[in-house]
Amino acid sequence: MVENFDEWFHDILENADITDSRYPIKGMAVWRPYGFQIRKHSMNIIKKLLDKDHDEVLFPMLVPETELAKEGIHVKGFEDEVYWVTQGGQTPLNEKLALRPTSETAIYPMYSLWIRTHIDLPIKMYQIVNTFRYETKHTRPLIRVREITTFKEAHTAHATKEESDEQIQDFIEMYKEFFDDLGIPYLISKRPEWDKFPGSDYTMAFDVIMPNGKTLQIGTIHNLGQTFAKTFDITFEDKDGEHKLVYQTCAGVSDRVIASVIGVHGDEKGLRLPPKVSPNQVTIIPILFKKGKEEVLAKCSEIKEQLEEAGIRVNIDDRDIRPGKKFNDWELKGTPLKLELGPRDLENNITVAMRRDEGEKIELTLDDSLADNVMDLLEKSNENLSKIAWDFQGEHVKFTEDINEISELVEAGNVVKFYWGGDEAVGKEIEEKTGYDILGIQEEVSEGKCIASGEDAKYVALIAKTY
Ligand code: PR8
Fold it and tell me: Is residue 29 lining ligand 1, measured as CB closer than 6 Å?
C-alpha cells in the first residue's frame, strides 16, 4: 500500500463508494452515499467547533470582477485559477462574474457595510460552501479538486493586531481539536513568505504525512493584517472617536480532511474509519442458517435498537450472501466494530465483537452492559487509530544538519527538519537544490547553523515532498 499509495487511494474511493470520478469534468467528482455520510459527520464536528463563537452565514457564489480585482496581490495569486461566468442565457453579461475561488472578495465588501463602530467588533463568521479553482497541477480526487465541495471558511475582523494574533492561536487550537477528533496527526508550521496566502501577512499551516511520505496541507490559517481592510475600506470608529482600519484573519479546511482520514488510517484491507465519522459505528453480521434464522434476525434488531438508544450508529447486514463476503465488505468500508451473531451465540447469549483496527475477537454478553461495552471498544479503537497515526508521524520526521542527506531522508518517506537562517534567497536555493518544498518554520532557535549558508540559524524548518 505504501509503495502504491496513489493507486490504493484511487481504488479505495471507488471500491468503498466514497466518490465517483467518472463525472465528465476533470477535477470534479460525485459524492456517493457512503462518502457523503463520512463528509457529513466530519462537517458536523467542525461546525460544532465553529458554532462556539462564530456565526454561520451564506454568501453568493458569484463575485463581480470589479470586487475580485480590487485586491491586487490577492487577485494575482488566483488569476490563473478563476472560472468565469460571462453569459446569462444568450445575453453577454455587462460584467464578468467569478465563481468564488475563496470568498474574501465576496465577504469583505459586506463587512465594510456592516462594521461601523468598535461595538461591532470582533466579527467572526463562517460558511461551508463549494469553491472553484481551475487547478493547473495534476488533479486528484479530494486532494486537488477543481470544485472544492466542502470548503469550511471562517473570516474574522478585529479592532487590534493583538486580537487578530490571538484569533490565529484560537484557530490553531480549534483545528487541533478537529484533527484530534479524527485521529489525524499534524505538523504545524509558519509558511515561508513565498508560499503564504495571497494578500496575507502570514500563514500558519497544518500538514499531515501521507503513507507514501508526501505531505498534504490539510488546513490553513491566515493573518490578513490590514491589507483587505484598506482595499475594501473596512473601518470602525474606535472608543477614542478615531476611524481605524480593522485587522482580519481567515482560516479554511476542505475535502482534503476526508482524504487524510482515508489515507492516514487505511490499510491493505481498506478503510479504517474513526468512529466519529464512520457512517456505521457498529455493523451487525447475522450468521444465518435455515434453522433459527428468524430468532437470530430478531435478536440482531433488538441489539440494534439497544445500541441506537445509547446514541450509536448501527446497521445490520442481512444481505443473502456468505458471511465471509459481508465480513470483507465491512473491512473494506472500515466500520470500526463488527458484531457477529449466529444461532450458537444466541444460545450462549453472546455476540462476537471484532474491532477493525485490530483483529482480536471478543465475546460480549447480551445484556444491559452491551452498549457500555461497545462504547468502550469504540473509544479504544479511536485511541488506537490515533496512536498508530501519531507514532507513524513520530517515526517519519528526521533532523539533519547535512543538506546532502535531505534527499535520502525524503526519498525514504520522511519529512526533514533542518536549521535555517530564514533568508528567502537561501530558502529558495535549498528548495532548488533538493527539489522539495520548505513547508515552513516550526520553531525559532538561538543555536545551530543554517544548513545552506552556514550563518547562525534562526529557525528549525521542515522540508518535504508535497502533494
Ligand atoms: C483560503 N480563504 O482560501 P487556502 N482541492 C482541495 N483542497 C484544497 C484545494 C484544492 N484544489 N485548494 C486548497 N485546498 C483562505 C482560508 C478562506 C479560508 C484546501 O485558504 O487557499 C487546503 O487544505 O489556503 C487549504 O489549506 C485550505 O483548502 C484553505 O485554502
Answer: no
Is there a single domain that holds both residue 192 and residue 322? no
Residue with the smallest CA separation from ligand 1 atom 23 is: 218
Query: Does 273 fall in a domain?
Result: no
- The per-residue pLDDT for range 293-348, each reduced to its tens digit, is 999 999 999 999 999 999 999 999 999 999 999 999 999 999 999 999 999 999 99
Interval between CA 374 and ligand 1 midpoint (Å) = 37
Bond prior to 122 in cis (omega within 30° of 0): yes
| Contact call for residues 273 and 157 (beta carbons, < 8 A) | no
Judgement on whether residues 372 and 247 belong to the same structural domain of the protein? no
Count of structural domains within the chain: 3
Q: Is 203 in the pocket of ligand 1 (CB under 6 A)?
A: no
Q: Answer whether 81's CB lies under 8 Å from 131's CB.
A: no
CA-closest residue to ligand 1 atom 24: 220
Domain assignment present for residue 292? The answer is yes
Co-location of 261 and 317 in the same domain? no
Are residues 346 and 303 in contact, defined by beta-carbon separation less than 8 angstroms?
no
Ligand 1 center–CA 220 separation, angstroms: 7
Task: Determine, yes or no, domain membership for 272.
Answer: no
207 lines ligand 1 (CB under 6 A): no
Q: What torsion, rounded to 10 degrees, do the Cα atoms 368, 371, 376, 380 define? A: 150
**Structural domain of 437:** 397-464
- φ/ψ of residue 209, rounded to 5: -90, 120
The CB of 260 under 6 Å from ligand 1? The reply is no
Q: What is the pLDDT of residues 33-48, one digit of tens each?
A: 999 999 999 999 999 9
Q: Judge whether 270 lies within some domain.
A: no
